[in-house]
Amino acid sequence: MAPIQTDNLRIAELRPLPAPADLAREIPRDDAISQTVTDCRQAVRDILAGRDDRLLVVVGPCSIHDPKSALEYAQRLTELRQRLADRLEIVMRVYFEKPRTTVGWKGLINDPHLDGSGRIEEGLPLARRLLLQINQLGLPAATEFLDPIMPQYFADLIAWGAIGARTTESQIHRQLASGLSCPVGFKNGTDGGVQVALDAIRSARSSHSFPAITAEGRAAIATTTGNPDCHVVLRGGNKGPNFSPAHIDQLAASAAKDGIDPGIVVDASHANSGKDPERQPEVIADIAARIREGETRIRGVMLESHLVGGRQDQVPGQPLTYGQSITDGCLGWERTVEVLELLAETAGSRLQQAA
């Protein structure tokens, strides 16, 4: 009599992945890239802690679906980063994983062919290679950490990381953040509430032990020392925007009770712009005006931006518009330049006030 099967009853296929160390050897970083990552991490720490009066700007596509257009965007952004470096610390948004409310395209790593084939073994090297190319320009990269295994494959190339609104309350992601080597921003909850993000910061600052995998791909127990470089990202919520002066005051008061400097970063997209990418400049203009009036608690902003504004749907048999998002709508390149120049002017006034 055959044994009764009780496991893997709903697993259609298991395919091997390379060990993280094998992928890193195949697609290695050099000392110049390591220096780019290290220098930016320190700059972000200093800005978030108020030791550097420049502004942190995390800007780029909602998600990466086409490495070619992403690299062209990175080349353009590198010129802006260099020109505005005395006032802004610009980091490119390079998001490979997309959390879905129900179902949908999960990002370049999970589905690099955009066809539901799930060729993660091809998406991982594609993502790592693109991160190398971006960092080789001298442009540091930011990403959202979603799957707890994936950071082993590319976190060494990330200067700033985010934990999204859907996962900020997750114990797994708080543990993950406690062991990451980069500064991490926790977004407020989907309802707009900030306490979950403050709780996440306190948790991630602590030591944790949890199951993980080693660089060689073996199961292990990871014990972390805690991450002191965590902060809050305001992205609005179901009730609307949450970056008004009253919201900032409330967040600062709640953070003070918890003994936290929240190092506030405002995400100009999502609910803060009513999910309308063309309203992102309005959010930035509001923030800029307040900074010029002396607001020091807002230390950075986030923008969703691509070569071509708006978004597009995938239509079978039809080519995609080059440089346009297939997930959330983005601000086009020309308006992005205008927004970054406004932020640089604003940061310049902050620097003059601090002098």
TrEMBL record:
The keyword Transferase applies. Coiled coil: none annotated. Transmembrane segments: none annotated. Keywords: Amino-acid biosynthesis, Aromatic amino acid biosynthesis, Transferase. SUPFAM superfamilies: Aldolase. It catalyses: D-erythrose 4-phosphate + phosphoenolpyruvate + H2O = 7-phospho-2-dehydro-3-deoxy-D-arabino-heptonate + phosphate. InterPro entries: Aldolase_TIM (IPR013785), DAHP1/KDSA (IPR006218), DAHP_synth_1 (IPR006219). GO terms for biological process: amino acid biosynthetic process; aromatic amino acid family biosynthetic process; chorismate biosynthetic process. Residues 42-340 form the DAHP synthetase I/KDSA domain. Signal peptide: none annotated. GO terms for cellular component: cytoplasm. The keyword Amino-acid biosynthesis applies. Pathway: Metabolic intermediate biosynthesis; chorismate biosynthesis; chorismate from D-erythrose 4-phosphate and phosphoenolpyruvate: step 1/7. GO terms for molecular function: 3-deoxy-7-phosphoheptulonate synthase activity; identical protein binding. Its EC number is 2.5.1.54. PANTHER family: PHOSPHO-2-DEHYDRO-3-DEOXYHEPTONATE ALDOLASE DAHP SYNTHETASE, PHOSPHO-2-DEHYDRO-3-DEOXYHEPTONATE ALDOLASE, TYROSINE-INHIBITED. Stereospecific condensation of phosphoenolpyruvate (PEP) and D-erythrose-4-phosphate (E4P) giving rise to 3-deoxy-D-arabino-heptulosonate-7-phosphate (DAHP). Belongs to the class-I DAHP synthase family. This is Phospho-2-dehydro-3-deoxyheptonate aldolase. It comes from Paracoccus sulfuroxidans. The lineage of its organism: Bacteria, Pseudomonadati, Pseudomonadota, Alphaproteobacteria, Rhodobacterales.
